[in-house]
Specification:
The chain is 76% helix and 0% strand. The protein is globular. Helix 2 (48-56) packs across helix 14 (267-301). It is built from 14 helices and no strands.
């Protein structure tokens, strides 16, 4: 841990508000356009069966899915509000971070957040805070994944999960091994103080509980006749896929994986593929909405001269 990344000795977050450069708005617009293109290209793979399933879903699925979508940025806002005294406007950056992580590459959104925090908020030592928050989140996610995998081990074996995808899923052990190492060498790795780390852990624990409950609720609303045991093993597979490093749009990967394991005629597999497509649509709506907000602000602000 370098001196630049060390946390201050008191509990007050250090923030120095900076005025955003016009070039930052241009960069944000270019990023938005790139994300829209990436999402549209992925939407092109939608099948007619998946689209029909989306049309038949109960309306209640949509608000619950939106709430599920917002659990990550809401948790991030609660965390960085405490660490950086993040203003409400920062929620937009956290939404963009979520989309970038899902559509481009895992953890690429954190790089965007780091640059944004340095330019727009002037947060002190943002790298250390972002690093620690992601480490704590990953640790909790790994623990939940291991617990679900252990509980569902028998059903996973019945699906020939290990035989079909074992080699690919071994890569998921990489973050788990890293987590164990972090627990051993935690004092040297973490930059935040113990009280701050505890707050981050509680926030992300609530996020995991809330998101897991919302996921199961969506599945139960859409297919109420499916046995809870099957949902449990599907949930375990979903979290196992989420642990795979350097994969973009893991919801689509998960949906396609379930089509492979359960078959294209399985109502469960088609539902999961439909939900993955709906989530991609939410990414598209969010990034277009944020881009529109930026345009409106730029027009309202009028021409500016850079310092």
């Amino acid at each position: 841990m370098t001196q630049a990344d060390a946390a201050p000795s008191d509990d007050k977050p250090e923030v120095a508000t900076k005025k955003a450069s016009p070039w930052w708005n241009v960069l944000g617009g270019a990023l938005s356009v790139g994300l829209v293109v990436a999402i549209v290209l992925q939407l092109d793979d939608a099948t007619s069966d998946v689209l029909k399933t989306i049309n038949r879903l109960p309306l209640l699925v949509w608000p619950v899915l939106v709430l599920l979508y917002l659990t990550q940025p809401i948790c991030d806002f609660a965390v960085f509000r405490r660490l950086w005294n993040l203003p409400l406007a920062g929620f937009e950056a956290l939404l963009r971070k979520t989309v970038i992580n899902e559509v481009v590459l895992g953890y690429s959104g954190e790089a965007y957040l780091y640059v944004w925090a340095r330019r727009a908020v002037g947060a002190a030592a943002p790298f250390g805070a972002i690093k620690d928050v992601n480490i704590v989140s990953a640790l909790l996610g790994n623990l939940l994944t291991l617990a679900l995998a252990a509980i569902s081990a028998t059903r996973l074996q019945d699906l020939d999960f290990a035989q079909r995808l074992g080699p690919a899923m071994w890569s998921g052990l990489i973050p788990v091994a890293i987590s164990v190492g972090l627990l051993v060498f935690g004092r040297r790795v973490f930059s935040l103080r113990l009280g701050q780390l505890a707050y981050v852990a509680v926030a992300h624990a609530f996020r995991l509980v809330a998101s897991t409950a919302l996921i199961v609720l969506i599945w139960r609303i859409a297919l109420p006749d499916v046995a809870p045991g099957l949902w449990l093993v599907v949930l375990a597979i979903r979290y196992l896929v989420s642990r795979l490093p350097l994969i973009s749009n893991k919801d689509l990967v998960f949906g396609n994986l379930m089509l492979l394991l359960l078959g294209a005629q399985s109502s469960v597999a088609v539902l999961l593929a439909a939900l993955a497509l709906m989530t991609l649509g939410l990414h598209l709506a969010v990034i277009i909405g944020l881009f529109a907000v930026d345009l409106v602000r730029g027009v309202a602000r009028g021409p500016t001269t850079s310092a």
